[in-house]
Amino acid sequence: MSEIHIKPEHLVTDEQSLRSLYPPVHTLAKLKSLNVLDDHAQAFIRRAPFVCIGTQGRDGTADVSPRGDPAGFVAILDPHTLAIPDRPGNNRLDTLSNIIANPSVGLLFIVPGFDDTLRVNGQARLATDPDLLERLSMHDRAPRLAIVIHVTEVFLHCAKAFRRSRLWDPAQFQERSAMPSLMKILLDQTTGAPDDAAALRRLDDDLEKDYKSSMY
């Protein structure tokens, strides 16, 4: 596949040109932005088992990382403060390193079955306070640290994206077997996957065992 090149005259490079392409923002879209977690936002967060956190590194490189646990795993410390436990992962620490370089973060809370989402923006810090980590424990295992976020903006996002994608429609669900396993993909992209199907199955089984033993 050859690389696509867009002609300069077709690029939107300034705010005025951007705004000219769209109708004016709806009044409610302006007014809905809050600087505090009201009762509705808190109720949404308590129902959410999944959140994506967007960060940006010192060099401007962007990153979005998924975080998930049982519903309500993101602690509401007060109407201006959230805490997200950092569970065991791949130890790349992209999100955490970015927060040290640039504390601005964006969160997207998702509730299964809900077409609308909750967006939260704020300033993040990394904390190892023992009392807080104990509060965020799961299966008697405390996280190594918590991402503590001072909330600066909160608003509900409309349902259009989820309805266009029919994300929760079972008729749209795809069989994971339609693509190679995660282990095969990773090996294909790095050191090379074994040709022996039995050997690859053993690697897949080992990954599943690792999931079970290292979730928390």
UniProtKB/TrEMBL annotation:
Chain ranges of the Pyridoxamine 5'-phosphate oxidase N-terminal domain: 37-158
Gene3D superfamilies: Electron Transport, Fmn-binding Protein, Chain A
Protein name per the record: Pyridoxamine 5'-phosphate oxidase family protein
Organism: Plastorhodobacter daqingensis
Lineage: Bacteria, Pseudomonadati, Pseudomonadota, Alphaproteobacteria, Rhodobacterales
